[in-house]
Predict the structure.
Amino acid sequence: MSSPYRDLLSVRGARSFVAAGFVGRMSMSMTGIGIVLLVSAVTGSYGIAGAVAATLSVAYAVGAPLSARLADRYGQRRVLVPLVLVNSAAFALLIASDLVGLAVWTLFPLAALAGATQVSLGAWVRARWSHALRDRPERLQTAFSFESVVDESIFVAGPMIVTALSTGVHPAAGLAVASALTLTGSLALAAQRGTEPPPRPRQEGHHGGVLANPAVRVLVPVFLMLGVVFGAIDISGVAFAEEQGHKAMAGLVLGCYALGSAAAALWYGARAWASPLDRRFRTGLLVLAVMMIPPVLVTDLWTMMIVVFFSGLAISPSVIPGYGLIEQRVPPHQLTEGLALVSTMVGLGVAAGASASGRLVDAYGSSASFLVPLGAAVLAAVVGVAGVRGSGPSITKVTQQ
């Protein structure tokens, strides 16, 4: 590991909260697949399974920013412990009701409860980095780059783990392990009081949620479109490999994409940047839009692997400065909420992108489906560039109080 990352992990308490966060948020790439595999195995319906998984996703998108707001106001430990206990109970009841054959409708409120109590743990860990590096803010981009690599590794390993457990051990095993990982990592994170950001009650003059911040109103649709890119690439990559007669190599195609993003994150975090953060953000979005063009044109599997690797290189230089802008321009008492909100927007975008590209695959084939990530990347660039430039003084850095 290069020196900037060794130095980063030498920060007091960092290794412990990084490890806890990694374990706790491993489930973010496992839960949806776990639900689909369990419910479809018991009911025989992928339609019902998808609807239950969607219910959890929508509830998570609503609940995660609200729980993050409470964490900002009252402290992470006071909020996380009761939430994760309720979350574990909800998943246990969801699994049990499925296995014992209760009425299908009972799965939906339990999925909603599980989703509403699932926190965006990556945002909570990034908030800890912001607190731990408050005297060395120049190292925060390295921390956010590192967390992007962690996210990439989770999204590579998680689906393989949950699929292996659900198909090779028991249909409920994948979801049960995902819930256990959430419980273990969350409690471990809550126990680390030394690195916990202090509670910050709402300050006078700041009314409403984090969406009152003009910077957040720009970043929310951008991160939603970035999620569409991620979800659409996944579906399009699998469909392309299948059309080429090598469906088993779909994982390798997507792995090349993730590898490109991870490599870019490591490179980005190791550099000392002189250019302003907002300029890097705009540049990253523009490069991403350009790099989404080649996959539409490629007709060969091996060429596609090379192309998506280079497309992946454009992901992290867009995402990392986006998180940096949240940290820079959102008041301290709303930081976790802001980070959680854009993270959940990515999740919603992934679902929307997967759905849209899947429909295009069915109707026109994989080449047409690659137009979804291209269109989303272009829209993200337009909104990001116009929004950041057009917000003027209202999007300037918030003074840290």
Remarks:
- Residues 214-243 form the longest helix (30 residues).
- Residues 1-202 form a domain with the Growth Hormone; Chain: A; fold (CATH 1.20.1250.20).
- Residues 390-401 have pLDDT under 50 and may be disordered.
- The chain has two domains: 1-202, 211-401.
